[in-house]
Amino acid sequence: MIREFTFIDFLYLLAATRWTLALTAVAFAGGGLVGLTVALLRVSALAPMRWLAGLYVLVVQGTPLLVWLFVFFFGLSIFGIAVSPWIAAAASFSIYAGAFLGEIWRGCLQAIPRTQWEAGGSLGLSFVQQLRYIIVPQALRLAIPPTVGFLVQLIKNTSLAAVIGFIELTREGQLTTASTFRPFTVYLTVAAIYFALCFPLTQWSRRLERRLHVAR
Amino acid sequence: MTYSFQFRDVFAAWDSLLDGLILTLELSLFTMVMGLLIGIAGASGRVYGPAWVRRPIAVYVEAIRNTPLIVQLFLIFFGLPSAGIKFDADTAAFVALSINLGAYSIEIVRAGLEAIPRSQIEAGQSLGLSGWQIFRYVIAFPALKMMYPSLASQFVLLMLATSVVSQISAQDLFHAASIIQSRTFRDFEVYAVVAAAYLALAMIFRLLFAGVYWLLFARR
At CB < 8 A and 24+ separation, what contacts does A1-4 make? Predict the structure, then answer.
Protein backbone atom coordinates (compact mmCIF):
# COMPACT_ATOMS: atom_id res chain seq x y z
CA MET A 1 0.00 0.00 0.00
CA ILE A 2 1.28 3.43 -0.84
CA ARG A 3 1.12 5.86 2.05
CA GLU A 4 2.14 9.47 2.54
CA PHE A 5 5.52 10.71 3.66
CA THR A 6 4.76 11.82 7.19
CA PHE A 7 6.62 13.04 10.25
CA ILE A 8 7.09 9.47 11.44
CA ASP A 9 9.07 8.72 8.26
CA PHE A 10 11.27 11.68 9.04
CA LEU A 11 11.85 10.21 12.49
CA TYR A 12 12.78 6.88 10.92
CA LEU A 13 15.30 8.66 8.73
CA LEU A 14 16.73 10.40 11.78
CA ALA A 15 16.93 7.07 13.58
CA ALA A 16 18.85 5.58 10.66
CA THR A 17 21.26 8.50 10.82
CA ARG A 18 22.70 6.90 13.97
CA TRP A 19 24.03 4.10 11.81
CA THR A 20 25.58 6.59 9.43
CA LEU A 21 27.33 8.13 12.41
CA ALA A 22 28.26 4.76 13.92
CA LEU A 23 29.78 3.60 10.63
CA THR A 24 31.64 6.90 10.32
CA ALA A 25 33.04 6.47 13.83
CA VAL A 26 34.14 2.89 13.19
CA ALA A 27 35.66 3.82 9.84
CA PHE A 28 37.45 6.78 11.35
CA ALA A 29 38.90 4.65 14.15
CA GLY A 30 39.96 1.86 11.81
CA GLY A 31 41.12 4.27 9.13
CA GLY A 32 43.00 6.25 11.75
CA LEU A 33 45.00 3.19 12.78
CA VAL A 34 45.73 2.24 9.18
CA GLY A 35 46.45 5.85 8.28
CA LEU A 36 48.87 6.32 11.15
CA THR A 37 50.75 3.19 10.08
CA VAL A 38 50.81 4.34 6.46
CA ALA A 39 52.00 7.85 7.36
CA LEU A 40 54.81 6.53 9.59
CA LEU A 41 55.91 3.97 7.00
CA ARG A 42 55.92 6.66 4.34
CA VAL A 43 58.44 8.74 6.29
CA SER A 44 60.47 5.80 7.59
CA ALA A 45 64.14 5.48 6.75
CA LEU A 46 63.70 2.04 5.16
CA ALA A 47 62.98 2.32 1.44
CA PRO A 48 61.00 -0.97 1.11
CA MET A 49 58.65 0.19 3.88
CA ARG A 50 58.09 3.47 2.05
CA TRP A 51 57.38 1.59 -1.20
CA LEU A 52 54.97 -0.78 0.47
CA ALA A 53 52.97 2.06 2.02
CA GLY A 54 53.15 3.97 -1.27
CA LEU A 55 51.78 0.97 -3.16
CA TYR A 56 48.93 0.66 -0.68
CA VAL A 57 47.96 4.30 -1.18
CA LEU A 58 48.29 4.00 -4.95
CA VAL A 59 45.99 0.98 -5.12
CA VAL A 60 43.34 2.23 -2.70
CA GLN A 61 43.24 5.74 -4.16
CA GLY A 62 43.06 4.23 -7.65
CA THR A 63 40.05 1.97 -7.10
CA PRO A 64 36.43 2.91 -6.35
CA LEU A 65 35.17 2.42 -2.82
CA LEU A 66 32.24 0.45 -4.29
CA VAL A 67 34.64 -2.22 -5.52
CA TRP A 68 36.01 -2.69 -2.00
CA LEU A 69 32.53 -2.96 -0.55
CA PHE A 70 31.57 -5.60 -3.11
CA VAL A 71 34.81 -7.56 -2.76
CA PHE A 72 34.32 -7.78 0.99
CA PHE A 73 30.59 -8.38 0.90
CA PHE A 74 30.30 -10.82 -2.01
CA GLY A 75 33.87 -11.78 -2.81
CA LEU A 76 34.98 -13.23 0.50
CA SER A 77 32.22 -15.83 0.48
CA ILE A 78 34.37 -17.98 -1.81
CA PHE A 79 36.68 -18.55 1.13
CA GLY A 80 33.70 -19.82 3.07
CA ILE A 81 33.53 -16.64 5.13
CA ALA A 82 30.04 -15.22 5.51
CA VAL A 83 30.49 -11.47 5.79
CA SER A 84 27.77 -9.30 7.30
CA PRO A 85 27.18 -5.84 5.81
CA TRP A 86 28.58 -4.35 9.03
CA ILE A 87 31.90 -6.17 8.73
CA ALA A 88 32.17 -5.55 5.00
CA ALA A 89 31.42 -1.85 5.42
CA ALA A 90 33.74 -1.41 8.41
CA ALA A 91 36.60 -3.16 6.60
CA SER A 92 36.13 -1.32 3.30
CA PHE A 93 35.82 2.09 4.90
CA SER A 94 38.84 1.50 7.14
CA ILE A 95 40.93 0.56 4.12
CA TYR A 96 39.67 3.56 2.20
CA ALA A 97 40.02 6.05 5.05
CA GLY A 98 43.44 4.63 5.92
CA ALA A 99 44.86 5.53 2.52
CA PHE A 100 43.51 9.08 2.52
CA LEU A 101 44.29 9.83 6.17
CA GLY A 102 47.74 8.31 5.66
CA GLU A 103 48.43 10.70 2.80
CA ILE A 104 47.09 13.70 4.71
CA TRP A 105 49.18 12.89 7.77
CA ARG A 106 52.28 12.10 5.74
CA GLY A 107 51.99 15.56 4.21
CA CYS A 108 51.79 17.07 7.68
CA LEU A 109 54.82 15.10 8.90
CA GLN A 110 56.81 16.13 5.84
CA ALA A 111 55.78 19.77 6.22
CA ILE A 112 57.97 19.91 9.31
CA PRO A 113 61.39 21.11 8.10
CA ARG A 114 64.16 18.50 7.85
CA THR A 115 66.28 20.59 10.17
CA GLN A 116 63.88 19.77 13.01
CA TRP A 117 64.61 16.05 12.54
CA GLU A 118 68.32 16.79 12.34
CA ALA A 119 68.19 18.93 15.47
CA GLY A 120 66.57 16.00 17.27
CA GLY A 121 69.20 13.64 15.90
CA SER A 122 72.02 15.86 17.02
CA LEU A 123 70.55 15.84 20.52
CA GLY A 124 70.89 12.07 20.44
CA LEU A 125 67.16 11.33 20.15
CA SER A 126 66.13 8.10 18.43
CA PHE A 127 63.75 8.07 15.43
CA VAL A 128 60.80 7.34 17.69
CA GLN A 129 61.82 10.04 20.16
CA GLN A 130 62.24 12.57 17.36
CA LEU A 131 58.73 11.75 16.17
CA ARG A 132 57.25 11.73 19.65
CA TYR A 133 58.76 14.92 21.03
CA ILE A 134 59.57 17.09 18.03
CA ILE A 135 57.73 16.21 14.84
CA VAL A 136 54.30 14.95 15.91
CA PRO A 137 53.44 17.84 18.25
CA GLN A 138 54.11 20.29 15.42
CA ALA A 139 52.50 18.15 12.72
CA LEU A 140 49.35 17.62 14.81
CA ARG A 141 48.49 21.30 14.59
CA LEU A 142 48.73 21.15 10.81
CA ALA A 143 46.79 17.89 10.64
CA ILE A 144 43.58 18.90 12.37
CA PRO A 145 41.90 21.05 9.66
CA PRO A 146 42.38 18.57 6.76
CA THR A 147 41.42 15.66 9.03
CA VAL A 148 38.13 17.34 9.90
CA GLY A 149 37.69 18.03 6.19
CA PHE A 150 38.19 14.35 5.41
CA LEU A 151 35.67 13.43 8.08
CA VAL A 152 33.07 15.19 5.93
CA GLN A 153 34.09 13.03 2.95
CA LEU A 154 33.80 9.97 5.15
CA ILE A 155 30.28 10.82 6.37
CA LYS A 156 29.16 11.37 2.78
CA ASN A 157 30.81 8.21 1.51
CA THR A 158 29.18 6.00 4.15
CA SER A 159 26.10 6.47 1.94
CA LEU A 160 27.68 3.93 -0.41
CA ALA A 161 27.24 1.23 2.23
CA ALA A 162 23.55 1.36 1.28
CA VAL A 163 24.31 -0.66 -1.86
CA ILE A 164 25.30 -3.74 0.17
CA GLY A 165 22.17 -3.41 2.29
CA PHE A 166 23.73 -1.71 5.28
CA ILE A 167 20.84 0.20 6.79
CA GLU A 168 21.94 3.78 7.28
CA LEU A 169 20.49 7.09 6.17
CA THR A 170 20.60 6.52 2.40
CA ARG A 171 19.33 2.92 2.61
CA GLU A 172 16.52 4.04 4.90
CA GLY A 173 15.74 6.67 2.28
CA GLN A 174 15.49 3.97 -0.38
CA LEU A 175 13.19 1.91 1.83
CA THR A 176 11.02 4.93 2.63
CA THR A 177 10.82 5.74 -1.07
CA ALA A 178 9.69 2.21 -1.82
CA SER A 179 6.80 2.45 0.63
CA THR A 180 5.71 6.08 0.16
CA PHE A 181 6.65 6.57 -3.47
CA ARG A 182 7.74 10.13 -2.76
CA PRO A 183 11.33 9.98 -4.03
CA PHE A 184 11.75 13.73 -4.39
CA THR A 185 10.64 14.57 -0.85
CA VAL A 186 12.46 11.63 0.68
CA TYR A 187 15.82 12.17 -1.00
CA LEU A 188 15.62 15.90 -0.42
CA THR A 189 15.09 15.18 3.28
CA VAL A 190 17.96 12.69 3.25
CA ALA A 191 20.20 15.28 1.59
CA ALA A 192 19.14 17.88 4.16
CA ILE A 193 20.11 15.55 7.03
CA TYR A 194 23.53 14.91 5.47
CA PHE A 195 23.91 18.65 5.01
CA ALA A 196 23.05 19.25 8.66
CA LEU A 197 25.78 16.78 9.64
CA CYS A 198 28.46 17.94 7.23
CA PHE A 199 28.07 21.69 6.94
CA PRO A 200 29.05 22.51 10.55
CA LEU A 201 32.13 20.29 10.16
CA THR A 202 33.06 21.98 6.88
CA GLN A 203 32.77 25.39 8.52
CA TRP A 204 34.77 24.22 11.51
CA SER A 205 37.53 22.85 9.31
CA ARG A 206 37.63 26.13 7.39
CA ARG A 207 37.84 28.15 10.61
CA LEU A 208 40.64 25.97 11.93
CA GLU A 209 42.52 26.40 8.69
CA ARG A 210 42.16 30.16 8.74
CA ARG A 211 43.40 30.27 12.32
CA LEU A 212 46.41 28.19 11.32
CA HIS A 213 47.30 30.63 8.57
CA VAL A 214 47.05 33.59 10.93
CA ALA A 215 49.26 31.84 13.45
CA ARG A 216 51.98 31.22 10.95
CA MET B 1 40.63 -24.06 1.13
CA THR B 2 39.35 -25.78 -1.93
CA TYR B 3 38.33 -22.86 -4.09
CA SER B 4 40.02 -22.54 -7.44
CA PHE B 5 39.97 -19.18 -9.12
CA GLN B 6 38.34 -19.07 -12.51
CA PHE B 7 38.84 -15.92 -14.46
CA ARG B 8 37.75 -17.57 -17.69
CA ASP B 9 34.04 -16.83 -17.09
CA VAL B 10 34.86 -13.19 -16.42
CA PHE B 11 36.99 -12.73 -19.50
CA ALA B 12 34.39 -14.58 -21.60
CA ALA B 13 32.15 -11.56 -20.98
CA TRP B 14 34.83 -9.17 -22.22
CA ASP B 15 32.43 -7.45 -24.61
CA SER B 16 30.10 -6.26 -21.85
CA LEU B 17 33.12 -5.21 -19.79
CA LEU B 18 34.37 -3.23 -22.78
CA ASP B 19 30.97 -1.55 -23.29
CA GLY B 20 30.97 -0.64 -19.61
CA LEU B 21 34.50 0.70 -19.83
CA ILE B 22 33.55 2.90 -22.77
CA LEU B 23 30.60 4.43 -20.91
CA THR B 24 32.80 4.99 -17.85
CA LEU B 25 35.35 6.77 -20.04
CA GLU B 26 32.71 8.84 -21.85
CA LEU B 27 31.05 9.86 -18.60
CA SER B 28 34.42 10.77 -17.07
CA LEU B 29 35.63 12.83 -20.02
CA PHE B 30 32.37 14.70 -20.64
CA THR B 31 31.99 15.38 -16.93
CA MET B 32 35.56 16.67 -16.66
CA VAL B 33 34.96 19.16 -19.49
CA MET B 34 31.61 20.21 -18.04
CA GLY B 35 33.00 20.40 -14.50
CA LEU B 36 35.88 22.57 -15.65
CA LEU B 37 33.52 24.94 -17.51
CA ILE B 38 31.22 25.22 -14.49
CA GLY B 39 34.28 25.66 -12.29
CA ILE B 40 35.72 28.53 -14.32
CA ALA B 41 32.40 30.30 -14.86
CA GLY B 42 31.26 29.76 -11.28
CA ALA B 43 34.54 30.81 -9.70
CA SER B 44 34.71 33.96 -11.83
CA GLY B 45 31.20 34.83 -10.69
CA ARG B 46 32.05 33.94 -7.11
CA VAL B 47 35.18 36.12 -7.03
CA TYR B 48 34.43 39.03 -9.37
CA GLY B 49 30.62 39.04 -9.56
CA PRO B 50 28.12 41.21 -7.68
CA ALA B 51 26.47 39.90 -4.50
CA TRP B 52 23.37 38.54 -6.27
CA VAL B 53 25.68 36.31 -8.32
CA ARG B 54 28.04 35.40 -5.48
CA ARG B 55 25.36 34.28 -3.02
CA PRO B 56 23.59 31.65 -5.18
CA ILE B 57 26.95 30.23 -6.29
CA ALA B 58 28.06 29.90 -2.67
CA VAL B 59 24.79 28.13 -1.80
CA TYR B 60 25.20 25.75 -4.75
CA VAL B 61 28.78 24.91 -3.79
CA GLU B 62 27.96 24.28 -0.12
CA ALA B 63 24.80 22.28 -0.89
CA ILE B 64 26.67 19.93 -3.23
CA ARG B 65 29.87 19.59 -1.25
CA ASN B 66 28.02 18.68 1.94
CA THR B 67 25.76 15.96 0.54
CA PRO B 68 26.66 12.53 -0.92
CA LEU B 69 26.88 12.02 -4.67
CA ILE B 70 24.63 8.96 -4.54
CA VAL B 71 21.83 10.98 -2.92
CA GLN B 72 22.22 13.70 -5.58
CA LEU B 73 22.03 10.98 -8.20
CA PHE B 74 18.87 9.46 -6.68
CA LEU B 75 17.30 12.89 -6.35
CA ILE B 76 17.86 13.61 -10.04
CA PHE B 77 17.02 10.17 -11.41
CA PHE B 78 14.17 9.10 -9.10
CA GLY B 79 13.06 12.42 -7.63
CA LEU B 80 12.91 14.84 -10.55
CA PRO B 81 10.45 12.82 -12.67
CA SER B 82 7.75 13.64 -10.11
CA ALA B 83 8.47 17.30 -10.90
CA GLY B 84 8.05 16.47 -14.59
CA ILE B 85 11.77 16.39 -15.46
CA LYS B 86 12.73 12.98 -16.75
CA PHE B 87 16.15 11.74 -17.81
CA ASP B 88 17.32 8.34 -18.99
CA ALA B 89 19.95 6.76 -16.75
CA ASP B 90 22.99 7.89 -18.78
CA THR B 91 21.81 11.51 -18.98
CA ALA B 92 20.89 11.58 -15.29
CA ALA B 93 24.35 10.22 -14.51
CA PHE B 94 26.03 12.87 -16.64
CA VAL B 95 23.91 15.68 -15.15
CA ALA B 96 24.48 14.56 -11.55
CA LEU B 97 28.22 14.03 -12.02
CA SER B 98 28.61 17.42 -13.72
CA ILE B 99 26.68 19.24 -11.00
CA ASN B 100 28.80 17.44 -8.42
CA LEU B 101 32.18 18.03 -10.03
CA GLY B 102 31.20 21.61 -10.89
CA ALA B 103 30.86 22.49 -7.21
CA TYR B 104 34.27 21.05 -6.34
CA SER B 105 35.85 22.74 -9.37
CA ILE B 106 34.44 26.13 -8.38
CA GLU B 107 36.13 25.82 -4.99
CA ILE B 108 39.44 24.82 -6.55
CA VAL B 109 39.41 27.52 -9.24
CA ARG B 110 38.30 30.11 -6.72
CA ALA B 111 41.23 29.26 -4.43
CA GLY B 112 43.55 29.65 -7.44
CA LEU B 113 42.08 33.03 -8.42
CA GLU B 114 42.17 34.34 -4.88
CA ALA B 115 45.78 33.27 -4.50
CA ILE B 116 46.82 35.94 -7.00
CA PRO B 117 47.66 38.96 -4.85
CA ARG B 118 46.14 42.32 -5.80
CA SER B 119 49.61 43.78 -5.90
CA GLN B 120 50.51 41.44 -8.78
CA ILE B 121 47.68 42.86 -10.86
CA GLU B 122 48.74 46.40 -9.92
CA ALA B 123 52.32 45.55 -10.86
CA GLY B 124 51.03 44.46 -14.27
CA GLN B 125 49.14 47.71 -14.67
CA SER B 126 52.16 49.76 -13.74
CA LEU B 127 54.13 47.93 -16.44
CA GLY B 128 51.54 49.16 -18.91
CA LEU B 129 50.03 45.75 -19.71
CA SER B 130 46.57 45.78 -21.26
CA GLY B 131 43.58 44.27 -19.48
CA TRP B 132 43.77 41.16 -21.64
CA GLN B 133 47.51 40.78 -21.05
CA ILE B 134 47.03 41.12 -17.33
CA PHE B 135 44.29 38.50 -17.38
CA ARG B 136 46.40 36.14 -19.47
CA TYR B 137 49.86 36.48 -17.95
CA VAL B 138 49.19 37.71 -14.43
CA ILE B 139 45.93 36.01 -13.47
CA ALA B 140 45.03 33.06 -15.68
CA PHE B 141 48.38 31.41 -16.20
CA PRO B 142 49.75 31.48 -12.64
CA ALA B 143 46.33 30.65 -11.19
CA LEU B 144 45.96 27.68 -13.54
CA LYS B 145 49.37 26.43 -12.55
CA MET B 146 48.43 26.67 -8.90
CA MET B 147 45.06 24.95 -9.21
CA TYR B 148 46.18 22.29 -11.68
CA PRO B 149 47.30 19.59 -9.21
CA SER B 150 44.08 19.86 -7.17
CA LEU B 151 41.95 19.79 -10.30
CA ALA B 152 43.82 16.76 -11.64
CA SER B 153 43.35 14.75 -8.46
CA GLN B 154 39.70 15.81 -8.25
CA PHE B 155 39.24 14.55 -11.81
CA VAL B 156 40.76 11.16 -10.95
CA LEU B 157 38.46 10.91 -7.92
CA LEU B 158 35.56 11.77 -10.22
CA MET B 159 36.51 8.99 -12.61
CA LEU B 160 36.41 6.51 -9.72
CA ALA B 161 33.16 8.01 -8.43
CA THR B 162 31.44 7.36 -11.76
CA SER B 163 31.10 3.76 -10.54
CA VAL B 164 28.18 5.01 -8.41
CA VAL B 165 26.05 5.56 -11.53
CA SER B 166 25.65 1.78 -11.75
CA GLN B 167 23.14 2.22 -8.90
CA ILE B 168 20.69 3.97 -11.21
CA SER B 169 21.30 1.24 -13.81
CA ALA B 170 23.55 3.30 -16.09
CA GLN B 171 25.59 0.59 -17.78
CA ASP B 172 29.11 1.57 -16.84
CA LEU B 173 32.04 -0.69 -15.99
CA PHE B 174 30.80 -1.38 -12.49
CA HIS B 175 27.32 -2.22 -13.74
CA ALA B 176 28.84 -4.68 -16.22
CA ALA B 177 30.64 -6.28 -13.27
CA SER B 178 27.40 -6.70 -11.34
CA ILE B 179 25.74 -8.33 -14.33
CA ILE B 180 28.62 -10.76 -14.83
CA GLN B 181 28.59 -11.48 -11.11
CA SER B 182 24.94 -12.42 -11.15
CA ARG B 183 25.41 -14.62 -14.23
CA THR B 184 28.59 -16.47 -13.31
CA PHE B 185 28.73 -16.23 -9.49
CA ARG B 186 32.46 -15.53 -9.85
CA ASP B 187 32.14 -12.69 -7.34
CA PHE B 188 35.74 -12.40 -6.30
CA GLU B 189 37.20 -12.77 -9.78
CA VAL B 190 34.94 -10.23 -11.45
CA TYR B 191 35.57 -7.53 -8.85
CA ALA B 192 39.29 -8.22 -8.91
CA VAL B 193 39.32 -7.72 -12.69
CA VAL B 194 37.23 -4.56 -12.46
CA ALA B 195 39.40 -3.19 -9.64
CA ALA B 196 42.45 -3.72 -11.85
CA ALA B 197 40.70 -1.94 -14.72
CA TYR B 198 39.86 1.08 -12.57
CA LEU B 199 43.39 1.14 -11.19
CA ALA B 200 44.80 1.11 -14.72
CA LEU B 201 42.44 3.93 -15.72
CA ALA B 202 43.43 5.97 -12.69
CA MET B 203 47.13 5.54 -13.51
CA ILE B 204 46.57 6.45 -17.16
CA PHE B 205 44.66 9.59 -16.17
CA ARG B 206 47.37 10.57 -13.69
CA LEU B 207 50.08 10.06 -16.31
CA LEU B 208 48.13 12.09 -18.87
CA PHE B 209 47.55 14.91 -16.42
CA ALA B 210 51.23 14.90 -15.46
CA GLY B 211 52.14 15.03 -19.16
CA VAL B 212 49.84 17.99 -19.77
CA TYR B 213 51.29 19.74 -16.73
CA TRP B 214 54.78 19.24 -18.09
CA LEU B 215 53.77 20.55 -21.51
CA LEU B 216 52.01 23.61 -20.11
CA PHE B 217 54.11 24.68 -17.17
CA ALA B 218 57.26 22.77 -16.47
CA ARG B 219 59.14 23.59 -19.65
CA ARG B 220 59.24 27.30 -19.13
Answer: A2/A179, A2/A180, A2/A181, A3/A179, A3/A180, A4/A180, A4/A182
Q: Which residue of B has its CA nearest to A76?
A: B188
B161 in any annotated domain: yes
Contact B160, B37 (CB under 8 A): no
Using the predicted structure, report yes or no on whether residue B26 has a pLDDT greater than 60: yes
> According to the model, what pLDDT value does residue B9 have?
78
- CATH number of the domain residue B41 falls in: 1.10.3720.10
Question: Number of H helices and number of E strands within chain A?
Answer: 9, 0
A157-186 residues touching B, CB cutoff 8 A: 157, 159-160, 162-163, 170, 173-174, 177, 182-186
If interface means Cβ-Cβ distance under 8 Å, which residues of chain B face chain A? 1, 3, 62-63, 65-72, 74-75, 78-83, 156, 160-161, 163-164, 166-167, 174, 177-178, 181, 187-188, 191-192, 194-195, 198-199, 202-203
User: For the segment B149-201, what is each residue's pLDDT rounded down to a tens digit?
Assistant: 999 999 999 999 999 999 998 999 999 988 888 888 788 888 989 999 999 99
pLDDT at A67: 93
* Domains in chain A with CATH codes: 17-215 (1.10.3720.10)
Pick from A170, A183, A195: CB nearest B78: A183
Identify whether B2 is part of a domain: no
Give whole-number Cα distances, B28 to A96, A115, A150, B36, B173, in Å: 21, 43, 23, 12, 12
Nearest residue of A to residue B82, measured between CA atoms: A184
B12 lies in some domain = yes
Q: Does residue A71 contact residue B195 with C-beta atoms inside 8 Å?
A: yes
Is B3 a member of any domain?
no
ipTM of predicted complex:
0.89
Per residue in B56-102, pLDDT tens?
Answer: 999 999 999 999 999 999 999 999 988 888 899 999 999 999 999 99
User: What confidence tier does B142 reach under pLDDT thresholds 50, 70, 90?
Assistant: confident
HSE on the CB side for A153, CA within 13 Å? 18
Q: Which domain holds residue B93?
A: 8-218
Count: domains in chain B: 1
Residue A121 distance to chain B (closest CA, Å):
34
Record: contact A64-B192, CB cut-off 8 A: no
| Residue at B39: amino acid letter | G
3-state DSSP call for residue B2? coil
